[in-house]
From TrEMBL:
InterPro entries: Cell_wall_metabolism_enzyme, Dup_hybrid_motif, M23ase_b-sheet_dom. GO terms for molecular function: metalloendopeptidase activity. The chain crosses the membrane at residues 25-48. It comes from candidate division WOR-3 bacterium. Coiled coil: none annotated. Pfam families: Peptidase_M23. Keywords: Membrane, Transmembrane, Transmembrane helix. Residues 183-277 form the M23ase beta-sheet core domain. This is M23 family metallopeptidase.
Length: 287
C-alpha cells in the first residue's frame, strides 16, 4: 500500500518529526472536500431560485410559457370545432329541408337550447356548447322524421299487385256491360287465373270476402288515409285483421263477381276518394 511520507523539522528544538499517511486517505479527504463544495453550490442555487425573487421570476416565466402553449393549442382546437360546427349546421339544415322540417336560422342556433343565458367568463365556449347541444337535438328530430317517413314509405302502394296487362285504366270509359260512359275507379290487370296477387304495401286487412259486383275482394288499410282494393279474385289467402307486408301474397287472379274474364280490378283510395293507382306505382311491369 502506497503511503505519503511527511517530515517536519523543528529548528529551535533541533528536532525532526516524521509520519506517513496512506494515499487512499488523502484521496478520500479530497473527495469529501470537493463534494461538500459542489453540494453547497447546488444548495445555494436551489435556495436562490426557490426563495428569492430571481428564482420566483424564472419559475413564473417557465410556467407562463407552458400556459401560453396550452392556450394556443386550445384556441386552435376551438377554432377547428367552430368550423366543424358551422359545417354541421349547414348539413343539418339540408337534412331538415330533405325531410320537410322547418329550417333553423343561425341566430336561433346561437341562442341554443333553453334560450338566452347570462354571459360567463368563457362566452365563446358557452356559445359553442349551446350550438352543439342544439345541433344534437336537431339531429335527433331529423332522425325521428326520417324514421317516420320510412314508415310511411313502407305503407305507400308503390308496386304492381300482379304482373299482367292493363286493359282498362283509371277514369271514364265505355262500360263493357251497358256500353255507356262510366267512371272506372281503378285499373284492370289481365293475368292467367290463379296468378298470385300481392299486397302493394304494408298494412292491415280490413275486409276479405264477397262484395257485390266485385266478387271476392280484399281491402287493406295502409294508414295515412290510404286504402287499396283487390277485386274479382279466385281465392283469398288472408283474413280480416292480418298484418301484411309489401309483396306478400294475399289472393289469386280470378273472375268472380261481375266481370268479362280473369283479371284483377285494383283500386286505391286516399282520404275517402278514388285516385289513379298508376301515380303510386314505382317499379316497371314485366309485361
Amino acid at each position: 500500500m502506497e503511503r505519503l511520507q511527511v517530515m517536519v523539522t523543528l529548528t529551535r528544538r533541533n528536532k525532526a518529526l516524521s509520519f506517513s499517511i496512506p494515499l487512499h486517505y488523502i484521496y478520500f479527504g479530497l473527495a469529501v472536500i470537493f463534494g461538500s463544495l459542489f453540494f453547497s453550490g447546488a444548495l445555494t442555487r436551489f435556495i436562490i431560485r426557490r426563495f428569492t425573487n430571481h428564482g420566483l421570476l424564472t419559475r413564473l416565466i417557465t410556467e407562463n410559457n407552458i400556459l401560453n402553449q396550452k392556450l394556443n393549442a386550445y384556441a386552435a382546437a376551438i377554432d377547428s370545432f367552430r368550423q366543424f360546427l358551422s359545417f354541421t349546421e349547414q348539413m343539418d339544415n339540408r337534412l331538415r329541408s330533405a325531410v320537410n322540417l322547418q329550417l333553423v336560422p343561425a341566430d336561433v342556433r346561437k341562442m341554443g337550447v333553453g334560450g338566452y343565458q347570462p354571459p360567463t367568463v368563457a362566452p365563446e365556449v358557452d356559445e359553442l356548447l349551446r350550438r352543439a347541444t342544439f345541433a344534437r337535438q336537431s339531429l335527433l328530430e331529423i332522425d325521428q322524421a326520417v324514421a317516420s317517413q320510412q314508415e310511411k314509405i313502407r305503407h305507400l302502394p308503390s308496386i304492381w299487385p300482379v304482373q299482367g296487362w292493363v286493359t282498362s285504366g283509371f277514369g271514364y270509359r265505355q262500360s263493357p256491360f251497358s256500353g255507356k260512359q262510366e267512371f272506372h275507379e281503378g285499373m284492370d290487370i289481365v293475368a292467367p287465373p290463379g296468378t298470385p296477387i300481392v299486397a302493394a304495401a304494408d298494412g292491415r286487412v280490413i275486409f276479405a270476402g264477397w262484395r257485390a259486383g266485385y266478387g271476392r275482394t280484399v281491402e287493406i288499410d295502409h294508414g295515412w288515409g290510404i286504402h287499396t282494393f283487390y277485386a274479382h279474385c279466385q281465392t283469398l289467402r288472408v283474413n280480416v285483421g292480418k298484418q301484411v307486408r309489401r309483396g306478400e301474397v294475399i289472393a289469386t287472379v280470378g273472375a268472380s263477381g261481375l266481370t268479362t274474364g280473369n283479371h284483377l280490378h285494383y283500386g286505391v283510395m286516399v282520404n275517402g276518394k278514388w285516385v289513379n293507382p298508376a301515380q303510386y306505382i314505382l317499379n316497371p311491369k314485366s309485361h
